[in-house]
Amino acid sequence: MDYLKKLNPFDGIPKYQIAQQIVNFGLIVASALMIWKFLMIASGSESPVVVVLSGSMRPAFDRGDLLYLDMNDGPFRVGEIVVFKIEGKDIPIVHRVLEVHEDANGLYEILTKGDNNTIHDKQLYAEGQNWLGREHIIGRVKGFLPYVGMVTIVMHDYPQLKYLLVGVLALFVLSTRDN
Amino acid sequence: MKSNRVQLIERWGLDYSIVTTDLTTDLTPLFNWNTKQLFLYITAEYVTPTNVVNQVVIWDKIVTDKDMAVINEKNIAKYYLGGDQRVNYKNLALNITFNYNVIPISGWITTHQQGSYSIKIPPTYN
Q1: Which residues of A touch B36 (CB under 8 A)?
Q2: Which residue of A76, A80, A114, B47 is most buried, as measured by CB atoms within 10 A?
Q3: For residue B126, is it within any domain?
Q4: Residue B25 domain-assigned?
């Protein structure tokens, strides 16, 4: 039993300190959430950071690249890279705007194409849908960090890794001794 | 950038236009340690009774190498415009602009415009 006691990372930590560590852990989670929510407000986009999942925008973006999105400034114009969602499909798509038609009421008809694809996206849209409207677009790509998103792709492909990582982090935070 | 040719053609009862351009520019100075690629595109912009803004990309090109950044293209056209039955393409005034955006290795993406000209689609098929 002595041996087990030594293994237990919580052994010898006073109870109040364990409580403090739990609060610390909560603080970390809350701060992460705060940063995300703050980014949502600053960018005006429901998901301000996305990871590229396919190579359809090669050589500009590749799998695992991290994109910062913004929704704030001005109307949609050709040449911009936008992230959009199609009804009935979960995964958002990052492609470039090839055609824009805007009427007097500010309603849009937008056509997109992947830089690495030979034809435009009409086949990619929902059945009977010829254009994207403003409601389909999550954000326009403003900033770019290479490869960082690979971490999330790996964790998505191997979910066990995610739980392991969270578990190890939690144990680490909770069992840190203040000296 | 200057105009080369504007065509009005008819296919399956709809009007289409092909705008052909000559483009000469040197984009070598845009390449530095943090430049991954340039995306060059030529846009045709026009106004129709239903729409206040219409923009169609009629040509594009990706440049990833500094040695390829001296552009000297003659007679270029990649995408047609037209095919919308609500629009009368005959005599339609077009504003043609050359733009590019710079994709960095990491950081912000920027867009720039360089050069433009105005032109009209001819009134008859040619």
Answers
A1: 59-60
A2: A114
A3: no
A4: yes
